[in-house]
């Protein structure tokens, strides 16, 4: 039995991503311990105003996020692609909670930090309006590179799989249901 944290990164109150997160959670709950976070429900200041120069008190929702991330063994992020990358609110969560001493730690004389969230895996479920082949191969797949290489690799989380669903904008209900069924299978 794994401890799985599912993050719906679409801040909209109703979205395909939210339904995917709920379907994933319901299926995974049959075999695992589950925590589900809807980024849109969180209340916090997105801006890390002083960078790491000054400690900023974390709001309750960010403290809760940190605790659930620390608790988890596997993290599933279900995110749309907006302007080639992740929604600002997800980026704001990462900026605010993946702090020195929590997610990484620099040691004097070394430019590569110690990774403090090792032992965890991740899975990315990405929705987009652009055709997936165009996004991945022509546009360069920026959300994958940012999440996997510049965030997770930096803090010690190993990405096990990435799944793409799109284009959402032109998908009919039948196609969306096929995607939802596929997401349920991923939760096994």
From TrEMBL:
InterPro entries: Flavodoxin_fold (IPR003680), Flavoprotein-like_sf (IPR029039), NAD(P)H_dehydrogenase_qn (IPR051545)
Pfam families: Flavodoxin_2 (PF02525)
Flavodoxin-like fold domain: residues covered: 2-185
Cleavable signal peptide: none
Domain of life: Bacteria
Keyword terms of this UniProt record: Oxidoreductase
Entry's family note: Belongs to the NAD(P)H dehydrogenase (quinone) family.
Cross-referenced PANTHER family: NAD P H OXIDOREDUCTASE-RELATED, NAD(P)H DEHYDROGENASE [QUINONE] 1 ISOFORM 1
Protein name: NAD(P)H dehydrogenase (Quinone)
């Amino acid at each position: 039995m794994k401890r799985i944290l599912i993050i719906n990164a679409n801040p909209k109150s109703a979205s395909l991503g939210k339904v995917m997160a709920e379907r994933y959670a319901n299926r995974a709950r049959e075999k695992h311990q589950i925590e589900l976070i809807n980024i849109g429900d969180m209340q916090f200041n997105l801006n890390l105003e002083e960078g790491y120069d000054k400690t900023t008190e974390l709001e309750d929702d960010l403290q809760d996020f940190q605790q659930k991330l620390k608790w988890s063994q596997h993290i599933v992020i279900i995110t749309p692609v907006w302007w080639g990358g992740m929604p600002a609110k997800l980026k704001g969560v990462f900026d605010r909670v993946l702090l020195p001493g929590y997610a990484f730690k620099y040691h004097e004389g070394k430019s590569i930090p110690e990774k403090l969230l090792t032992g965890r895996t991740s899975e990315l479920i990405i929705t987009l309006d652009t055709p997936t082949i165009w996004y991945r191969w022509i546009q360069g797949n920026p959300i994958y590179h940012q999440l996997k290489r510049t965030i997770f690799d930096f803090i010690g989380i190993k990405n096990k799989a990435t799944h793409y669903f799109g284009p959402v904008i032109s998908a009919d209900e039948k196609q969306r249901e096929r995607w939802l069924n596929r997401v349920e299978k991923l939760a096994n």
